[in-house]
Amino acid sequence: MILGVNLATQPLETHRRFRVFSVAAGAIAAVAFVVLAWRVYALRQAETAFRLENASTSREIERLNEQREELDRFFSEPENARLHDRASFINTLIDARSFNWTRMFMDLEKVLPIGVHIISIEPKQLNGQASVKLVFGAANDEAKNKFLHALEEQSGAFSHLQLVGVRTPTQETSGDQVIIELTVIYSRA
Fold it and tell me: Where are the alpha helices (DSSP H) in the chain?
C-alpha cells in the first residue's frame, strides 16, 4: 500500500482559484472576441453593400450626365436653337394675351380714392406677373397717402411697391398738388 506523505517543508498549494479566474477571464475574452468578430463581419458586409450602392449610383450619375450632354448637343444645333427661340417667343405672346388686363384695371379702380387720378400706366409682362409703372396725380397729401396705403395693405393683387419719384406738376391748371411715379407687381392670384 502506498501512502501519500508530504515530506516538503511547506504544504502543497492549490492553484484552484487562479485556474477558475483564468478560465472565467478566458471565457469572457472568448465571448468578447466572438462579439467583436461578428461586429467586424457585419461592418464589412455593410461596407460592401455601401460600395456596391455607391458604384451603382456613380454609374447612374454618369449615364444621366451622358444623356444631359447628348441633349445639350441636340438643343445646341442651329435648327433646334431657332425652334426653341420661336417657341419661347410664341409662349411669351400666349402668356401676354392670356393675362387679364381688364381684371387688373378693375382691381386698380377698387383702391383708387377720391382726389387721385392715373396719368399713365406702363405694364410689362414678367413670368405670370405684371410689372406696372404707374404715374398718378393727387390733389393733396391725404389722397396720395390713402392711395399708397390702399396699394400696399388693402389690395391683395398689388405688391412690391417701389416709389420711383415725386414731382410737382408743371401746369397750374391740372389741379394736382403732386405727381408720383411708382412701380408695383400685379399678381394674377
Answer: 16-76, 78-98, 101-111, 141-149
Count other Cβ atoms within 10 Å, centred on residue 146.
19
Q: In what order do the strands lie in the sheet with 178-187?
A: 116-126, 129-138, 178-187, 158-167
Residue showing cell 455593410: 46
pLDDT mean by block of 10 residues, the chain; 189 residues? 66 80 95 96 96 96 95 87 85 73 81 84 74 83 84 78 77 69 76
Lookup: cell for 167: 414731382
- Distance between CA atoms of residues 23 and 16, nearest Å: 11
Q: Note the pLDDT of residue 25.
A: 96
Question: What count of Cα atoms within 13 Å lies in the side-chain half-sphere of residue 116?
Answer: 22
- d(C-alpha 153, C-alpha 43), whole Å: 61
Q: What is the pTM of this model?
A: 0.47
